[in-house]
Amino acid sequence: MPVETILETPGSDIVLIREFDAPPELLWRVWMEADLLARWFGPEGFTNHDCVVEPKVGGRWQAIMRGPKGTEFYQDYPIKSTIVALDPPHRLVAAGGSEEYPDDWMEQYNSFMAADERETSVDIVMEVTLEPLPGGRTRQTMRQTFKSPEARDAALKMGAEQGWSGSFAKLDGLLETQPR
pLDDT 10s per residue in the chain (180 long)? Predict the structure, then answer.
């Protein structure tokens, strides 16, 4: 049965809610262990290298996504964030920007912004909360907060929802292989 990812867009946020057939402790591991993060993070067809997770406030949460070879997306997309809050295994908050993203990505993103709203980096605060559910399941809520509703809308036009949904589909597959 397909798993639904619920999208909400309050204020300047993208909120994606999805239930997983795994306990919060396992979901926490796949967010906080670099080798596991590398196996699921990023849209379908993307891979990761140089994943680093330093599980402490002030630590790095980083993945360098690489687009699929032979496509217009075949380049690196560095996700470099700093952990600003942790409550294992229930809550992760990390803040970062897209300073090192390819120029063509930023140009396309800015094409969706008003001239006076254009950015040199898309700054995002990501909050992941993991809520235990009956039967060893977890409700994951992933919230990305942008500087404005316009910045959020540009990210959605760039495929943020589809990218995260693809990541979560890969995450489902990874969770099936992990010991409980």
Answer: 457 899 999 999 999 999 999 999 999 999 999 999 999 999 989 999 899 999 999 999 999 999 888 888 888 888 999 999 999 999 999 999 888 888 888 888 889 988 888 888 889 999 999 999 999 999 999 999 999 999 999 999 999 999 999 999 999 999 999 988
> What are residue 53's DSSP bridge partners?
61
- As given in the structure block, the two tokens for residue 42 are 């990023």
Distance CA 96, CA 4 (A): 27
55: preceding bond cis by omega (within 30 degrees): no
Task: Name the nearest CA neighbour of 167 among 42, 67, 49.
Answer: 42
Q: How far apart are CA 41 and CA 91, in angstroms?
A: 18
Q: What is the DSSP letter of 123?
A: -
For 147, what's the count of Cα atoms within 13 Å in the CB-facing half-sphere? 11
Q: Note the Cα 18 to chain centre separation in Å.
A: 13
- CA–CA distances in Å: residue 87 to residues 13, 108, 141: 21, 36, 14
What tokens were used for 156?
């959605």
User: How would you classify the pairing of strands 137-145 and 13-20?
Assistant: antiparallel
Q: How far does the chain reach from its first CA to its final CA, in angstroms?
A: 21
DSSP reduced 3-state for 99 = coil
